[in-house]
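Submission sheet (multi-component)
Chains listed below:
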Amino acid sequence: MNHRMRPKKNARRFYGQGIPGVDPEELVGKLIVVEGADGSGRSTQIVQLMNWLETCGRPTVQVGLKRSTLVSEELVRAQEGNILSRTTLGLFYATDFADQLENIILPALRAGFIVLADRYIYTLMARDMVRGMDEEWLKNLYGIALEPDGVFYLSVEPEELVQRNLAKSATLDYWESGMDLGLSRDLFESFVEYQSRMQAAFRQLQKTYGFEIIDANRAVETVARDLRKNIQGLVNGSG
Amino acid sequence: MKTFKELNYPGRLVAVEGLDGSGKSTQIYLLKRWLEAEGVKVYFSEWNSSELVKSATSKGKKRELLTPTTFSLIHATDFADRYERHLLPLLRAGYIVLCDRYVFTAFARDVVRGCPPEWVRGIYNFAALPDLTFFFKADLEVSLQRILDGRPKLKFFEAGMDLRLSTDTYESFRIFQGRILEQYLAMSREFNFMVMDANQRAEKQQVLVRKLVREHIDLPKFKRRGALPPPLAPAPRWVKPAGPAPETEGDTEA
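Outcome: structure written.
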């Protein structure tokens, strides 16, 4: 857990090459990212943050994974069939991300909105890394992404994630258990192992991208307070 | 990047590149027919043809949803799907794989659309290089004429209309193709293209293509032992004797 505020960033920037023809300086809104596994309380926290921000009178839009007009349906279908190999799946998700980046995130930021992202490139990169994709390749690919104003990773122990997922739906999701990796035939075992690997990948990415790690083993309200405190400063930064 | 031969794959990959209307698709089709007749294990794969990705691509094109970045990524996804699911296993199994367009198409087009060259090349660096790349170099006017004769209606992305080069579709297409040609020519030496004179008659070109393939690939090694049914390859979606305009629903070009 880290409550320390990061020093204010000097300038808006893309991580790498960015999007052709877009000047980051025009993007005057704020981009806030919440990361975390299913069962980390991510969705609950996003709903609360959205309510809070709008109640405070801040125009806010939400984005997330697999929600693009361009490829979301095809992605869902591809996952159902489970026939995509890792590079293909990685690129498909990158396409979905890019579509939302260009059509929702950038225009909203240009108009001064707060964009609340229910996961961002880090989940995508961590998933691909766990599947053996090269980190440098991923950094180049996601060089199109804009550096957010704040990234909060909700960290929950894998054992606690299992409990929360089972309490919610009485089963574990195929992809969230990393069953495509063949770690174990046992869904429970595979889930715990996969989520541990995902956390290791996040720790690795944290070194480069420096996001805040929030201890989300705690009660929902405690985590929410923590997030609000962190985000308050960010969104009030320059109005 | 290395070729499949350098990576010790038992198979070999032959790619054709060139502008729309350069006649490359006719040439690779005739090459395929010859190799089949020789009893060689051969597979043909076309740019932008992965079943899985196609519905997204054609939706993106029809509704003009694509930006240079998503245009590039969706074609990379298509390529990766064909590469990992078909090309790699076939090359491991000792096939000669024929590709109508390969990564160079992306290198040329995406860069013309404004994507940073290093970014595009980085994305495709999971792919090995072809063992043989034929570049069909026709005069720009010849290629344009072949396309414009056969198919008067140009599609939005195919004509490069997204680049706002001109409000006139034909003018836009001309400028767009001209820029792609420049990119190809700039890559020609770096990637060892076999440059073919595509202004020549098709049958003359094919004689040379076959000669070069025979010189570079020890064909008897790739013959199938015993009788097996031919592999399930997608049937060519067009066949036209001369100056083929690839007429497909999704479009082969842009």
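Remark: Residues 86-110 of chain A form the longest helix (25 residues).
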